[in-house]
Inverse folding.
């Protein structure tokens, strides 16, 4: 009887985990296209988890993991604009709105609406974006693009670099999410 | 005499302007830190660094974040993705699987290390993302 119960619990664990997908090496890039300078930065250590049953989506992004072409830009980004010592992580907590579509994913990309709250520098802003999801073997591949405005997160551009940093920042997200492996002791 | 004085002032101004330009350009184009040639700020075991971020976050954030860390520990996992290799030390089990320290190397060619090896890595500590401590721009110091 105990063996049957243990087996049932393990199988239940498999079922629960099969609905959760995760990556710790997602990529988020941002692009600023100002009249005098184009700036881009990439972070390839993004944590993201999605739950296909509930539609919950969560991102955790370490601000210091953004890499710039120039060291000075990276320094200014962390110390003057994002204050990464005080606010080391940006988060996004949201929901997949089209749950039926995400449950029936196949190899053709499906456009799925994701809504949630983006928190940068301790300031929250509701974001809604259509994202492309598809299945590749056992993984879920997700891509999204959206724009944010620096003023929404109280990021001020000094007058001296006004023509070098755009007020609107394009964000690109690329994820390869794997099913969460159940742990069996 | 007056002409000579003007020449000296002109030369001084030119020197100051050129110096400011050189300093400005060298700051603008200064390279990223090279962990292979820099002295570490801290030499620490994997479990000690992870424990500091999970148990004494403020202390760790102040002392280790953005510092050059030389880390040693037993390698648990190797991830190779496009243009980067990640050496991973598992130190805890969380809701989303194993947690620990992820060391990022900006190369896609395999490093000559194996799971279970005791390795020493030098990198810049980016901080803790609530599951893992991230070390970036890493260099392999020694394999045993």
């Amino acid at each position: 009887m105990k063996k049957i119960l243990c087996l049932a619990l393990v199988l239940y664990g498999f079922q629960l985990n099969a609905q959760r997908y995760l990556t710790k090496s997602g990529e988020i890039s941002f692009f600023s296209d100002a009249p005098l300078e184009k700036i881009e930065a990439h972070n390839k250590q993004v944590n993201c988890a999605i739950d296909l049953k509930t539609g919950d989506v969560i991102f955790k992004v370490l601000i210091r993991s953004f890499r710039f072409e120039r060291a000075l830009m990276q320094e200014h980004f962390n110390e003057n604009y994002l204050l990464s010592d005080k606010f080391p992580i940006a988060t996004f907590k949201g929901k997949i709105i089209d749950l039926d579509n995400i449950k029936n994913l196949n190899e053709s990309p499906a456009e799925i609406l994701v809504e949630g709250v983006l928190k940068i520098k301790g300031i929250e802003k509701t974001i809604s974006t259509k994202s492309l999801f598809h299945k590749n073997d056992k993984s879920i591949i997700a891509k999204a693009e959206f724009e944010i405005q620096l003023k929404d997160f109280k990021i001020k551009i000094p007058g001296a670099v006004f023509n070098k940093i755009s007020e609107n920042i394009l964000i690109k997200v690329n994820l390869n999410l794997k099913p969460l492996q159940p742990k069996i002791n | 005499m007056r002409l000579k004085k003007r020449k000296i002032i002109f030369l001084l101004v030119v020197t100051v302007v050129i110096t400011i330009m050189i300093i400005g350009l060298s700051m603008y184009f200064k390279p990223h830190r090279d962990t292979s040639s820099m002295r570490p700020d801290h030499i620490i075991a994997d479990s000690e660094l992870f424990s500091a971020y999970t148990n004494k976050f403020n202390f760790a954030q102040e002392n280790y974040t953005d510092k050059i860390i030389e880390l040693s520990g037993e390698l648990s996992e190797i991830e190779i993705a496009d243009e980067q290799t990640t050496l991973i030390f598992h130190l805890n089990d969380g809701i989303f699987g194993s947690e620990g320290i992820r060391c990022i190397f900006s190369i896609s060619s395999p490093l000559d290390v194996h799971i279970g090896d005791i390795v020493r890595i030098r990198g810049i500590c980016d901080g803790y993302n609530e599951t893992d401590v991230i070390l970036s721009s890493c260099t392999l110091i020694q394999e045993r």
Remarks:
- Residues 20-179 of chain A form a domain with the Lipocalin fold (CATH 2.40.128.110).
- The interface with chain B takes residues 20, 22, 24-25, 44-45, 47, 49, 60-62, 64-65, 67, 70-72, 74, 78, 84-85, 88-89, 180-181, 183 of chain A (CB under 8 Å).
- DSSP finds three helices and nine strands in chain A.
